[in-house]
Each structure stands twice: as structure tokens, then as C-alpha cells.
Amino acid sequence: MENYLLIPFLPFAAFLINILFGRAVLKEKAHWVSILAVAGSWVVAVMTLRDVLAGKTLNENVYTWILAGDFKVSVGFLIDQLTAIMLIVVTTCSTLIHIYSVGYMHGDNGYYRFFSYLSLFTFCMLMLVMANNFLQLYFGWEGVGLCSYFLIGYYFDKKSASDAGKKAFIVNRFGDFGFGLGIFVIFLNFGTTYYAPVFAQAGSLAAKSYNFLGFDVHLMTLISLLLFCGSIGKSAQMPLHVWLPDAMEGPTPVSALIHAATMVTAGVFLVARCNPIFSQSETALVVVALTGAITSLFAATIALVQNDLKRIIAYSTVSQLGYMFLACGVGAYTAGVFHLYTHAFFKALLFLCAGSVMHAMGGELDIQKMGGLRKYMPVTYVTMLIASLSIAGFPGLAGFFSKDEILWMAYSGSSPVGKIVWASGTLVAFLTAFYSFRLIFLTFHGKFRGTHEQEHHLHESPKAMTIPLMLLCVGAVAAGWVGIPALIGENIGIHNGIAEFMKPVLGHAEGHGTHGEELIVMAVSVVVGFAGIGLAWFMYMLRPDIPGKLTAQFSGVHKVLYNKYYVDELYSAVIIRPTIWTAKNILIGVTDAKVIEAIVNGVPAAIGGVSRQLRKIQTGLMHHYATIMAMGIFIIAALMLMRSW
Amino acid sequence: MEQVMTNTMGFPILSSLIFLPVIGAVVLLLLNRTNENLIKWVALLFSVGTFLVSLPLFSTFDKTTHAMQFVERHAWIPSWNINYYLGLDGISILFVLLSTLVAILCVLISWNSVKMKVKEFFISILIVESAMIGVFCSLDFFLFYIFWEAMLIPMYLLIGVWGGPNRVYAAVKFFLYTLVGSVLMLVGIITLYLYAGRTFDILALSKLILPYDMQFWLFWAFFAAFAVKVPMFPVHTWLPDAHTEAPTAGSVILAAILIKMGAYGFLRFSLPMLPEASRAMTPVMIGLSVIAIIYGGVICLAQTDLKRLIAYSSVSHMGFVTLGIFALNVQGMEGGILQMLNHGIVTGGLFLGVGAIYDRTHTRQIADYGGVASVMPVYASIFIVFTLASIGLPATNGFVGEFLILLGGFKASQWAGVLSATGIIIGAGYMLWLYQRVFFMETNQKVAGLSDIGARELAALLPMVVLIFWIGVYPTAFLGFMHESVRHLLERVSDGGVHGVSVAHNVLEILK
Amino acid sequence: MVPLNWYLLLSAAVFSIGVFGFLTRRNIIIMFMSIELMLNAVNISLVAFSHYLQDLRGQILVFFIITVAAAEASIGLAIIIALFRNKNTVHVDEMHEMKG
Amino acid sequence: MQLMMPNLQPVMPEITMTVLALLVLVADLVIKRKETIGLLSIITAAIVAYFLTTAKGTAFNGMFLSDGYSIFFKLIFLMNLILTVLISVKYLSVERVNFGEYYSLILFSTLGMMVMASAGDLIVLYLGLELMALSTYILAGFLRYDMKSNEAALKYFLLGAFASAFLLYGTALVYGMTGTTDLKEIAGYIALNGLAQNPMLILAMIFVAVAFSFKIAAVPFHMWAPDAYEGAPTSITAYMSVGPKAAGFAVIGRVFLVAFGGMKVEWSAVLIPIAILTMGLGNIVAISQTNIKRMLAYSSIAHAGYALLGIIAGTPDGLASVMVYMLVYAFMNIGAFAVIIMLRSGDFKGDSLSDYEGLAKTHPLAAGLMLVFMFSLTGIPPTAGFMGKFYLFMSAIQAGYTWVVLIAVIFSAISAYFYLRVVMLMYMKEPKETVALSSSPAIGLALAVALVGVLAIGVVPSFFVNFAKAAVAGF
Amino acid sequence: MSMLPQMFFGYFASAIVVLSLLVITRKNPVHSVMWMLLLFFHIASMYLFLNAEFIAAIQVIVYAGAILVLFLFVVLLLNLKEELQADRFIGTWPAGLLVSAAIFVSLAAALQKFVPGPKGNFTIDLIQRVTHTKVLGQVLYTEYLFPFEIASLVLLIAVIGAIVLAKKRMRSH
Predict the structure, then answer these.
(1) Domain E1-80 indexed as CATH 3.40.50.720
(2) Where along chain D do its domains lie?
(3) Helices A333-361 & A398-412 angle (0-180, nearest 10)
(4) What band does D233 get if pLDDT is binned at 50, 70 and 90?
(5) Distance to chain A for D288, nearest Cα, Å
(6) Chain D window 98-157: which residues touch E at a Cβ cutoff of 8 Å?
(7) ipTM at complex level
(8) Closest CA to D344 of D454, D234, D421, D242
């Protein structure tokens, strides 16, 4: 635990070395620095977890970052149970993906750049999870966003890639806007931005109302919702989810690490971290739960009809993140974090498999042009199958436990919307199973539908890539075993380890149902999972003509889904185009040009005009001069005489 | 005289700073104009020399007091009770250092890009440097005004002689705009001087209690000068033209120092001398700041000219500065001052960067660029640092400043805080879009085959990069200078009884 | 006794006639003569004042005015001659080489 | 009645000047090299300046006052004289009118100004004024073969005579109402009999004001100035724009603050509109000029407007500020004209604004000097122009005329536009044709003196301010 | 007292006004000069009424004798024939008439408020006893010596000026 500073700063050192010397010195050996650094972090993280398991926590300030009046904030670290879990998730995924990238990025001319970004990302992510105050959290938050920007736009010469990077950053800024305001409100009410005192006071301020922009609102609700804005952006929830699918322009390891396993879950982490605040506001929790539920449903429906391999997984990610929020929203933070943890493994795995497929397909992403890859790339196939089973909730695999926990908590918890979100969650579970297996079937089964050239090129990926796949596969299978629910665990003598472990930080949500109910909920989720798989098998293996017919019959629905409910178009029409139009036609065209500049240039022009008129008085004719003089005399005399008479 | 601490350096350090560049200019004047290399080296020598002389300020400044330090005082025009009175406090010291640094960078960046009237160019740069330092050091209002105005001459030449195609218009506009503001301030200064019993001593004037009516009129007289310099909405339109047409060094000086002088003026004069009026006018000032932030930002989205875009972004960023200052609380003000410094570094850096590439392509149209990152990777990575600092990414200086300002602004007026925070979103929008259009995407024919920046340009850009991270990661090193001075200033502004700031009341007051 | 005001009124009348001549005549020489008229008007009032105030200063001033008028006449006429040599006219409305 | 030798000590400078001027006139007959005559004039000025130091006192029953006030103005006149002679030497030979009378006329004209500054009696004032004016009329028409010069002289002369007639009429009325022509006695009589509000006296005051306004070229009595300045030989334009103007201010100060001191309310009501119109018209019309001499003529009108502020203030400080401003104006304006004169060579007129295009490239030194003078005329620190304006504005504000100053500063900002245009043409345009400079050591010296004056007063005005203040103290 | 002085004044005043008008309205400059000559004699006569014999004398000698002759010379130098063809007044003469009338009206109006100054020592008796010329001379050469000297310089200037401007002389060099 004493070496905790090594965890973030090893990757940071790697970043510095790579960015400074990568291009000239290290070149294609750049990965060594990064891998060693992140592996070192992993080792320290594991040791830290051991200490935390032994009951030690840490909250330490390193140095004062900003000090202005009573506003003081440090660079400081908090290591507790939640942090420890996150550290494991981040360093593990990161390490494996670093290794994977060695194979995947081989030969790329920005090799050093890629690894330095990955290291920087790891650093920022670790700073985010280890922060002991909101501002440092914000630092990591924006830092990972930046790395995301760089990595999405890694192939910057592609317009779509640079567009996507920019979009990700800006959309996130919308979320951060609320997040920042949240921090202001926290500071103004709590007088500090450190977690510990804020959370300690949260209870006593629970009833406080606060005047915000002229409205009296419940303080805790306000803070929660403002912070949640940040989560919405970072975790790609409705309505700020639009950036994540586009983010798939980045190299696949990036999608796996940033846009599946770690960064996007930061929103969930934030809500979990701030659970003392969120718990004080039922309204906020309901909003969180509903946002999660709607997003998960919404994304899942879109995923049904997409053909882009990575985009399907991306929508799946959005959907699963919705799940996590759903969990948090019903008060089951542990379940949310648990799902975060299991999701990291199987989703990273899914992405890496997708990467492996792309590697083989020469960058092709359209699953309509794949098929039958099973025989060419068995490792990829098996690992991806396991990952898909995991996400579909196949009993015993990681996804099963976490998803089940969430659904049960939703069903049995005290949340007013619990039943609704349970129902939607169950539906999503069905859809998830369906589209996951649609993906599997279309990609790996049947006949190859791509070009001949591609078929010739098909091969299993190199060791550097397959070994991480296999390791992650272990996680996708076994990660859930730390959270075996009491229902099952009691019988075989295993505790729900994670719930116990997280209790000091996240509290313990009590279910109010009987074992019987719990069993039913579990059964339902298993059944819908199998139903989804079955339907996918039916539609894409047995009767491949059905999807086409359905598409034709419900062409309207399909179109809406295929075009992602036209959200991007909506934003373009409502925000982007009006803004630029205003800038061009109102601000530049009217305010600047016709008002301000008209005055600024008009006054001198007018003076110039007056000047040209006035000079005409000077006719050059002396008698005019004399007349004017005499007139001047008379006018002055007349005025003065009238004045003094 | 508990407000001042005399100079214990053993030599008049501030005078040296002011006059070293002048001596340099005189030396240049005497050199043969055909020997351009010598001229450049001498200019560099003097700017570096000035910078080195300024470094002890940084190390020996006493941060535990708001008192003026390194004070020098000599009678200058005794019949008008005008003194040559110099000193620094926590608010001004950083700008002196920035000025000396920026001068070096300007010399470096202009090394090859200035081809005609080389001698006059470097003379102008050195004189500008001297005037800039003088503005920040003056403790006598009259002396301040002298430097303030004197700066116009070399700046006018810098823009008008070595600028772009529309330089004459821009130079005249710059000059007249600022002159109109300044002369109105002059009337205010004289009024204040006479009222105070014939003294220009800034410290004495800052203790004065003026009747509210007088404060009100003086506030607007000073506003005329300072707001134009900042520039605040709606007197900002000189800036895009001046920035766009000025040569790189001119843009850098404008961005880094010159427009800071306006904000500095508010801090040094408007607030302490006219506390009641300042308090009463905060709604107006905050309103104008918020408009500037959003207006400047949104307008950037429609720019097609590289330098013009950065110029409008300055309007937006300086809106943050004035917002922070007129939030009238510690966070806002310290943020504002820091942001002045930040903006100087970042926008200065952006202009340096733009200059470096302009020298190669001779076009400012964004559409003429694209894919520069492929051709000039080092340059691209430095430029991204400036871009990120400009949009206020944490760990860069921009974040610290903007965060404090927004916090302070939010504290002062929630609406202002919320509306200004949208500036952060817009800022990310236009800067990243700019970066994308210039550096990303397919390589434009016009930039294909450009050489990456050389050692000299790197030397000009790197100090800015270092400062960006230094301030971003350890802002205490800079904020520490200003704590005491800001505290003292805020005490001054807020004492004299509790005056509720009622927007409606003040709007009525203005309409009257 | 003739009231002083009568003299003053006469003086004012002559002065105004001088002004009128100066303002309206085209011929520079006549304009110049109008000025002499104005000076004479002044002289009339000065001598009258001198008489009524029993003080000689007015007459001293008249003496100087006449002297200066003589000097003025010589210079003025010299200018007119120089001009006439170059331009061959003495009409004031033809002198507009410079204007604006 | 016994003839007594009056105390001539105070008049020594004038006597010296007369004697030496006559000597110069005679020397012209024997000396062929006219440059020598120029040198003699400068020596004359120097000797006169020397005598000024011991010339304090009153002579001729208070008709002649040699106080600090007049001495200060006389120094301005002498400085004006020296600078004008310095810039004339080469110019006269370029214009081919290198006659010795030129110098003696300048000397006599300066003598007239000196008499004006010292006049304690309206009669003396009138004679001084005519001595100055008549010499200047001749000088304005000195280029006998040049139509413009003729026309300038004619306009200046006729309108000047017209204005003098008004001065005389005013003087006569004042005399008639107060029974005296002595300035102090006039003031005393007005105060004693409460005549300040008397319409007739006000009319008289207006007539006097009109004549002086004519001399300083204040609107609407400025009409002669642009034409006379444009047509006159450039050296004389320089001379006219400073000397008679300063002399005008000297007598305005004396007459209005002493003789009409009790009528301040009345005459400030006359002078304030005049001042505002003067600043406004001068600055605004200057913008659309294309001839630099004409532009400077309008500029000179405008500067008279600024200087009137000091008179309007009516305080010792105000008067001192006018004095300092006139000195400053002498340096900067003659400096500017020195540059203009250098451009005149051979058949090249060099007085069109477009002739200045690219001067910085062909003649960087001349352009640099012009730049300094232009900025000084604009009133940008650290030049003397700023200090002068500052002092004027300060005294006007102190006297409570803040609103007039506000107008003045706005016009002053407008003036930047046309002064800057000269700088712009010199520095920001490419030269059209190569211009040969007709420079000479004398012009160099004049420029150096002007430059030092502009910068010295700009940086350390203390000496001059104290001097002016002390001078006013004995007023 | 009789009405005689008033009657004399009435004659001379009306004559002066009429002659003035004639001076400025004649087309032929020679006629103007001639009318002016007559005018000056009338003015001189009026000075005699006011006990200013010396002034009356120089009015005749200097004005009529010197200045007007000078005018006549110049007039004769010019082309009279053309002059007789040309317009007498400029086009805008009504404006001039208006302004000069206005000035006259203001003067006349202000005249009502005229208050004469204090009486001095030079009574009519004294002047008549010592003779006007002598009295004037005494004052001029003692009290007004200084302006007198300056007046001499003015005349000197006139001489130089006339030479410089009117004398035919080649350009230098």
C-alpha cells in the first residue's frame, strides 16, 4: 500500500518516455516501456487489493494543487474497497490490452504514439479512480476523455476518425458542464470538495433546499443530478450516447480498453462513489434508474439491426452501461459495480475478439460479409462465444451473476420504479442474448460471404493477441464467482464475497423478497437469455430468410432502428446547425458587421463626410471668408447682447 | 508607509527592466541597417538580458505581504507632484515576468519572417517591451498613463508596417479605438488627481473615499480605456482585425500582454479607487463578460481565418477574465488574474504557432490547411498542447484559471456561472474543430512537404509549453504570489458598509 | 453741444458702410479703400471721445492709426501690384488658387 | 517740462533687436552670401535672448511690461525665429528668393511680437501687432513669382486689415467707456463702475476678441489660415503657425485676464464656443486634406482651440499651460515643417501628402523625425505634445470646464487620424519615386533642436512647467 | 445754445455717409478715389469742430495727400477699361449688405447703453491756450515715445515691403 503512488505514475512515466523518445529512439520497441509500466502497476494494484482485503484503507493528500481563499484542493489519493476493485479492473484490462496491441498494432507508423496514449490513458483512469476529491476526479475524468479523443482519432488522416474523436470530446463536455456545476454547488454548500467531509455531511444536509437559478430545489437532488450529467456523458447514456458508436473509429484495442472496460464505466463509478449523496435523493435515484433502463432498452433495439461488428458491440456496451445505472438507481450500487467489473472482462473480450476478426478480415467490419470464420480462427471463436454466453447470462458465467443480482435488486428493492425497470431489464436481457448471438452466428457460422481475396487471407491472430483473449476469457467465465448470490451460495457454502467486501463503501441494499421470488426472477432471466439465443439461432441459422422478410415488412421500424432513432440528425438540426447559422448570420453578419462595425467604421466615415462637406466652406474666395468672419462677429455680438440686455 | 517595501536588491531592478530594452533600442538605432544579423543578435541579447534581470523578482518576492515591493521613488515632475514611482505587488509581478519572456520569444519567432525594415522592427519590439514593463510597474497614475499610451506608437508600427494585406486599416483602427478610450480615461485621471489634492500616487488614491457620483463617472471613464483594451463586448471589433493583420510578434504581444493591460487596469485602478461604483456596476460588468464569453465563442465557430478565430477566442477568454475580476471574490479574482497569465501564455503560444506555419505557407485560411500533423508531427504535438490549454483541460493552466473563475462567477451570480460554463463547451467545439481542420484529415497539397519546426522555433514555443504544465500542475507557485494582494484588494472593495447589489437598481441608475 | 452719441452713430454708420464695401466689392482696391473707410470711422469716434473726455490719448491713437494706415497702404498696394503682374486682374473672385 | 531719460533696462532686448535688425538690413547691402545674414540673425536672437535675462521691470509708465510672462513668450518668439532661420537658409536658395530682406523682416516681425507680449497699453499693443502683421504679410508674399504666394499674402493682408479695423473699433469703444488705454486702469475702471455687464463694453470686448481670434486663427476667423499657410513659403508657414499665434495668445492672456479680468463670465461665454468650434473644425477638416501644408494649417487651427482652454480656465495654471503649450507647439510644428522643407527640391514641390509615401524606406531618418513630430502633435506620450495637452486639460478641468475638456479629448483622438496618415504613408506604403532631400547642416540643427525640445519636454517637463509657473506668478 | 453746431454736424454727417456710400459704389475706381478725397476733407473738417486741428491737418496731408495719391497711382497702373466692363459687386452682395446692416444695428443698439468714461485734464481751454499741436507733441514725445518709435519701424517695414514686393528684381542665383 505504501507504494500506491506507483500505480498511476508508472504508466505516466511510460507515457513521458514514449512521447519524448518514442519517435526518435524507441520506435517499434515502444511497447516494452508501456507494458512493463502497466504490468508493474498491476502488481502493485494486486498488492494494494490484498491490503484492502486485510482491512486497510488510505486517504492521503500529496500536495496542494489549487488554493484560492477558502477553496483548497489537493492532489490526493483515496484507496478503499471501491478503488481497489477499480484498480484491479483497470490495470488488468489495461495490461492485457497492452499486450494484445503489440500484435494488433504491429507495423503501424504511429506505434510509439499509440502506446504513449495508452499509458497516458491508464494514468488518467487510475488518477480518476484513486482521487480523494471531486476536482482530481474531474482531472482524471477529462484526462481519460482527452486520451479517448486522441485514440479515437488515432487514424487522424481519416476524416471520420477525427470527426468521431472531436464528437466524443465535445459531447462529453456537455456532460462535464453539469458535472462542473455540481462541483460548484458542492463547494458552495459543503465548503470543500474532498469526498470524506462531503459524504460525512451529506446526511445532515439531506433536507436542505437550495436556491438554484431562482428556483428552490432540493440540494441533494440538485447535486446528484448535476453529477449525473457527467455520468451521462462519460458513460454514453441517453441522450448523450451518440459519441460512443462513432468512437469505434479508433483502433480496436482502444475500443476494448476505453470504450468498453474502463473509461465508459467511470460514470457508474462516479455514481457509486457518490452514493452517500445519491441515496439522499429518491428523485435522483429514480432518474438514474430510468435513464439506465431506457438507455439499455434503446441501445439494445438499435443493436438488433446494425451490421457493423464493432458498432453492435458498442451499442451493447451502451446497453450494459444502462444496466449498471439501472442497478445504481434502485440503490444496488454493489450490483452496479459488480456488473461493471464482470462487464469489463467479457466486453473487453468481445472487442478484442472483434479486433481479431478484423485483423483477419483486413479491416472489414460488416458482418453481412463474414460467416464461417469458426474454422479459420478457432481461438477467437471459442473466446468470443464464451464472452457472448457471458453477456447473455448463461448460468455460471460472469455475466449471469451480475445481471441476476441487478434484476433481483430491481425487482425486490424499495425503488418506486423497481418493477418497471426490472421488466425492461428482463426484456433487454432477451434482446442482448439475441443480438449477441446474431453476431456470433453471422460471423462465425454459415458460409463466408466476403470476397475471395479476404477468404484467402483469413487466419488466426498471432500469439500476442490470442493469449490476452484466453486470459480475459478466464475472467469472463470466472469473474462472477466472487459474487455468487446467497440463494445459491448458501447451499454450497459460499458467501457473496463482493457484497461483503463493498459494504463499507457502498452500503448494502436489502431485497424484500422471498427466496421463491428470487428463484423466479433468476429463472426468468435465464429463460429469456436462452430464448434470445434460440431466436437468433432460428432466424440466422435455420431460416436465414426471415430477417430479410421482417426487414421488408417492418421497413419503417427497421429504418428508424438502423438510423439509431435519428438522434444524430436531431442534434445536428437542433444544436449544431442553428449555432453555426447564428454565428455566421447573426453574430458576424448582423451584430458585428451591421451594428458594432457599422458604428466603428461609420463614425469615422461620417466624420470624413462632414470633413469633405466642411471643406467646401473654404471656397478660396476671400469675400466669402470676410462674410463668414463678419457673420461670426454679428452672431457672437447678437447672442451676447441678448444675453446681457 | 506600511504599504511599500523599498528595493533591497542593491540596484534599481525595475528601472533596469524598463530601460534595458530602451538602451537596446538605442543601440540598434546606431547600428548599420545592412547588418541584419548583428541587429537580430543584439535584439536577442537585450531581450534575454532583460529576462535574466527580471528573474530575481520571481525568487526574492515576498509573498507574505500585499505591500508594493522593489519600490523606487524619485520626484519626476515636482510641480505637478508626479513621481517616478515603481513597485510590484502580487498582482503585477507575474505580468512583468511574462512580458520579459514574451519579448524573447517575439525576437526568436521573427528571426527570419521579418524581411524588411529589420532594424525598425526590433527597435519597436524592444520599445514595446519597455512600455509593457512600465505599465505593470507604475505606481504613479501619470507614469502609468505615459507607458500605456507610449505603447501605441510601436504597436501601430508593428501592425501597420509588418502586417498582412489589410494592415493599414487594422493599425489605424487599433490606434484610434484605443486612443479614444484612453483619452476619456485621461479626463478621469485628471479629475481624480485634482479631487485627491493633486496626487497621482496610486496607493494614496486607492485609499481615497470618493463620493458615489464621482465614482460612477470615473468608473465609466476608466471603463472606456480598459474595456477597449481588454477588449470587452461590444468594443471588441478592433481585436480581430489587429490580431489578424499583425505580424506574428505583434499578435503575440497583443495577445499575451497588451490586452491584459485592460484587465490589469480594472484591478489596479477601477476596483481599489472606485470600490462602491465597482460594486454597483458588477451586474453590468458580469453581464458584458458573459456576453463576451458566449458571443466570442460562438463567432469562432464560423471563422475561416486562422488568426481571426484565435482573436475571437481571445474575446471569449478575456470575458472569463473580466467575469472573474468582477465576481469580487477570492476565487474569481485569483482565477481572473491567473487566467490573464494563462491567456497570455496560451494565446501567445497559439499565435507563435500560427506564425511558425504562416511563415511556411503564407496563408491564414483554414481551408488551405489539413493534415499538417502528418508533415509536422513535433509542431502538431506542441500545438495540441496550446489547443488543450485553451479549452481548459485539467493539468493545463487553462483549467485552473477557468475553474476558479467559474467557481467565483457562480458564487457571485449563478446565472453568470451557468451561462459562462457553456463557454467551455463552445471553446472545445471551435478549438478542436480548428485543430481537426488544420492538423488532421488528408494532407492538403499546400502543406505537403513542409519542414517541421526547427530548433529556433522550438526554443520559442517550448517555454510556453513548460509554463502551461507548470501552472496547470502546480498553480500554487503562481497563485501564491497573489493571495495577499488579492485579499487586500477585496477588503478594499468590500469595506465601506454593506451595499446590496441590486441589478434592477443599477440598471435604473445607468439609464438615468 | 452735439451729443457724443451722434458722433458714435455716425462712426458706426461709416464703419458699417466700410464693412459692406469690403464684403461686396469685387475690386480689391475698392475693398482696400473700404478698410480705410472703417479706419476713418474709428478715427471719428476716437477724436470725438478725445474731445468729450478731455483726454488726448484718443488723438494719439488716431495719429498712430493714420501712420499705420499709410504703411498698410504701401504694403497692400505692393501686394496688389505683385498680384496684378502675375495674374493680370484685381478681381477678388478670381483669386481661388487655393481652397478646400 | 523737463525731459528725463526713461528707465530703458526693461526695453533693452527690444532696443537691441531694433539696432541689430537694422544692422542686418544694412549688412545685406554689403554681404553677398546670404547665409551669413541668416547667421547674423541667429546671433541677433542669441544676443537679445541674453538681454532678456536682465530685462525685468516696467517702462514708459506701465506701457511696457517686461515681466516673466512676456519674457517666456519672448523666448518662444526667439526660439521660433532661430528655428525658422535655420530651416530657411537652404530653402530660400531652393526657391531662388535668397534675399537679405527676408531675415530683417523676420527680425522686425519678431520684434513686433515681443512688443505685443510686453504691451501694457492698447496703443502699444496695436502698434506691436501691426509691426508683426505687416512684416508677416510681406513674408507670406515673398515668393513674388508664385501665384499662390501672392494670393496668400493678399488674403492674409486684406483679412488681417479687416480684423485690425475691428480691433481698433473695439479699442476705441473701450477707450470711450473707460477713458484710458492702459490695461490695468481699464480693469480698475470696469471694476469700480460695475461696467462688466454693459452691452457696449461687451461689444467692444467682442471686437477685440475677434481680432485676436483672427491672429490665432480661431473659428470662424480662421478662414485666411489654410490659404495663407498653403501659399506662403514653407519656412514662413512654419514661422506664421507659431509666432503670430503665440503672440496672439500672449495678448489674449494679457488683455482678457488683466483688462477684462472682471468680465470673465462674459468673455468665457464667447471663447468657449469659439474654442470648441476651433478644435472641431480644425481637426475635422484636416482629415480630408491632401496637401500637407494645408493639413498642418488646419492642425494649427485645432491647436489654437486646445490652447484656448488654458485661457478659458483663466487661472495662473491655465495661463502657464498656454505658455508651455505654445513652446511645445513651436518645437513640434517647426520640426514637422523642417521635414516638409527638406522635401522641396528643384522642381519637386513635396507638399502633397502622397509625396510622403515610402519615405521611411528612402529616408529613414527624416521619416523617423516626422514620426516623432506627428505623434507629438497627436499628443501621444512620451512626447512634449502630450505634456502640453495634459497641462492644458488639467488646468481647464481644475477651473471646472470638464465638459469642454471632454470635447477636446475626443477631437484630439480624431486628430490622430490625420497625423497618423502621414506616418502611415511614410512607413506603410512603397515609395513611388525617389525623393531627393535638400538637407543642410542648418536644417539638421533645427531638427535636432526640435527633436530635443519635443523629447525633453515630453520626458522632463518640470523645468519648463516651473518656469512658466514662475513667469505667471509675477503676472 | 443755438442749433448751429447740430446743423453743422447734420450736414457733415450726412455728407460723410453719402460720400462713403459713393466711394464704395462707384464702378470706376478713379471716381471712388475722388469721392474719397472729398470724404476725407469732410472728415478733416469735422475734426476741426472737435478741437483737433493737428489731426485734421494730417488727415488732409497724410490721407488725402499721400495715401490717396498712392491709390490713384495703383489704380492707374491697372487696366481701367476692363474694369468698367466688369461687375461692381460680387454675386452674393445681398449677404454682405445684410451682415453689415446687422452689425450696424447691433452697434446702434448697444450705443444706447454707452456710458462715457471719466473726464481728463486736457480741457478745451487748455488745448486752445497751448495750441493743439503743442499739447499733442508734448504728450506724444514723452508719454508715447515708445509707440512712436515703433510706428517708425512700421513705416520702415512699409518701405522694405514695398521694395521687396513691388520692385522688379530677378530671382536670386
Answers:
(1) no
(2) 9-473
(3) 140
(4) very high
(5) 6
(6) 98-99, 101, 104-105, 108, 111-112, 115, 121, 123-124, 127-128, 130-131, 134-135, 137-138, 141-142, 144-145, 153
(7) 0.90
(8) D234
